From TrEMBL:
<comment type="similarity">
    <text>Belongs to the GTP cyclohydrolase I type 2/NIF3 family.</text>
</comment>
<dbReference type="InterPro" id="IPR002678">
    <property type="entry name" value="DUF34/NIF3"/>
</dbReference>
<feature type="binding site">
    <location>
        <position position="66"/>
    </location>
    <ligand>
        <name>a divalent metal cation</name>
    </ligand>
</feature>
<dbReference type="GO" id="GO:0046872">
    <property type="term" value="F:metal ion binding"/>
</dbReference>
<feature type="binding site">
    <location>
        <position position="237"/>
    </location>
    <ligand>
        <name>a divalent metal cation</name>
    </ligand>
</feature>
<dbReference type="InterPro" id="IPR036069">
    <property type="entry name" value="DUF34/NIF3_sf"/>
</dbReference>
<feature type="binding site">
    <location>
        <position position="67"/>
    </location>
    <ligand>
        <name>a divalent metal cation</name>
    </ligand>
</feature>
<protein>
    <recommendedName>
        <fullName>GTP cyclohydrolase 1 type 2 homolog</fullName>
    </recommendedName>
</protein>
<dbReference type="Pfam" id="PF01784">
    <property type="entry name" value="DUF34_NIF3"/>
</dbReference>
<dbReference type="GO" id="GO:0005737">
    <property type="term" value="C:cytoplasm"/>
</dbReference>
<feature type="binding site">
    <location>
        <position position="233"/>
    </location>
    <ligand>
        <name>a divalent metal cation</name>
    </ligand>
</feature>
<keyword id="KW-0479">Metal-binding</keyword>
<feature type="binding site">
    <location>
        <position position="105"/>
    </location>
    <ligand>
        <name>a divalent metal cation</name>
    </ligand>
</feature>
<comment type="subunit">
    <text>Homohexamer.</text>
</comment>
Length: 288
């Protein structure tokens, strides 16, 4: 029997249990018929109009994304809005959409374990950053050897996909780094958890001026850490996609499904909303 969407959803739900998502999140199957066949699966961070068109044009039956399409309520799916046009394109194109968001963040393997690997953490040392947070977002662990902040950030930049915003770092280049806290995507709500975990550096994204300034001020009156690295929302989460598809195919095969002709593809579209930067300077006035 051919592989169906219902077969794939069952494995995805087991791999990324919807109950492990944050209470505000919207995950799981968004569109599609459980009985429709699945021959090609497309994966992306964001279900943008361009990504949906790419999936449809490539013949995908299922689009797996990290970010939800319908996180907040909408009252119309008319094509006069981006959300409506997206829903229409999925339905008309016969492309199912499945979302694994914060439930993929906390999974092992998942979004944060992929980022931990990019940071160079010893896998055996990594554990949840904050068990007090709902379902424990983020990880903290150790590098195999201490290094300086500039070298750490440079290695991370090489491991991440290129993005226009690059990597922003708050801390002295010569600062010593061994213990790393991390959270893929927006993470300025876990500064206290990173500090409490004794992290030398905290890697996340979408850091804002005032929270970062206050966090660094608090660090100054302590021992100077954690240093902060804003590595970009899309970049820190896109690392998960290839592994997620490979794990999905393996789990389907283990469940007895024929995956010999199943095709998978990671989107070539960079959904980082920024397109270029101008005049970036270091704190010392040099070009970044």
């Amino acid at each position: 029997m051919s592989l169906t969407l219902g077969d794939v959803v069952a494995v995805l739900d087991a791999t990324y249990p919807p109950a492990s998502a944050q209470s505000w999140d919207q995950v799981g199957l968004v569109s599609g018929d459980h009985e429709q066949p699945v021959r090609r699966i497309h994966a992306a961070v964001d279900p943008t109009l361009a990504v949906i068109a790419e999936a449809r044009d490539s013949g995908a039956d299922l689009l797996l994304t990290h970010h939800p399409l319908l996180l907040r309520g909408i009252h119309s799916v008319a094509t006069t809005s981006a959300k409506g046009a997206s829903v229409t394109a999925l339905v008309v194109g016969d492309v199912a959409l499945y979302v694994a968001h914060t439930n993929a963040d906390v999974a092992d393997p998942g979004v944060n374990t992929a980022l931990a690997a990019a940071c160079g953490l010893d896998p055996a040392s990594a554990h949840p950053l904050s068990v007090e947070e709902e379902h424990g977002l983020g990880l903290v662990g150790e590098l195999p050897a201490e290094t300086d902040l500039a070298t750490f950030a440079g290695r991370l930049a090489e491991a991440l996909p290129a993005a226009p915003g690059g990597i922003r770092v708050a801390g002295p280049p010569e600062g010593r780094v061994r213990r790393v806290a991390l959270l893929g995507g927006a993470g300025d709500g876990l500064f206290d958890a990173a500090r409490a975990a004794g992290a030398d550096v905290y890697v996340t994204a979408d850091l804002r001026h005032h929270p970062v300034l206050e966090a660094r001020e608090e660090a100054v009156v302590a021992d100077g850490t954690p240093y902060l690295v804003d590595a970009g929302h899309w970049a820190t989460e896109s690392l998960w996609l290839r592994g997620a598809l490979d794990d999905l195919v393996g789990a389907l095969a283990a469940a007895g499904h024929d995956t010999a002709t199943l095709e998978t593809h990671v989107s070539t579209i960079r959904t980082d909303p920024w397109t270029f930067t101008v005049g970036a300077r270091t704190a010392e006035g040099g070009t970044a």
